[in-house]
Amino acid sequence: MIYSKIMSETLRAIPATVEPDGTVTLNQSLRLAHRSQAVVTVMIESDGTNLAQVSESALGKDWNRQEEDEAWSALQDPK
């Protein structure tokens, strides 16, 4: 409980834009009492085509098994 309180008081997510050259621009103003460290998490945007194709292949190996069909059979419409 104490850990989560400390983390909620010390970590703050700030939306930002990262340019191809690495320049980071915060999407809102931020005032700090002193110099602080930051961690930048970059969310690579794509049209989703490649991700969907890779996911289909990887997930298909697991989803297209007899055990999966049996596990979900109770939720399928009767024919």
Describe, in plain words, how this protein is organized in 3D.
This protein is mainly alpha-helical and 79 residues long. The chain has one domain. Helices cover 39% and strands 8% of the residues. The protein is built from three helices and two strands, in the order αββαα. The protein has helices at 2-10, 49-63, 66-72; strands at 16-18, 24-26. Strands 1-2 form a two-stranded antiparallel sheet. The model has no long low-confidence stretch (mean pLDDT 80).
SSE map:
Layout: H1 2-10, E1 16-18, E2 24-26, H2 49-63, H3 66-72
Antiparallel strand pairs: 1-2
**Biggest sheet, spatial arrangement of strands:** 1-2
Our measurement of the CA-to-CA distance between the termini, rounded to an integer number of angstroms, reads 52 Å
For the secondary structure, the number of strands is: 2
Helix and strand pattern? HEEHH
Cα radius of gyration in angstroms: 22 Å
Which bin fits the share of residues in helices?
25-40%
Number of domains: 1
Question: What's this, in brief?
Answer:
The chain is mostly helical and 79 residues long.
Which descriptors would you attach to this protein?
single chain; 79 residues; mainly alpha; two-stranded antiparallel sheet; 2 strands; 39% helix; elongated
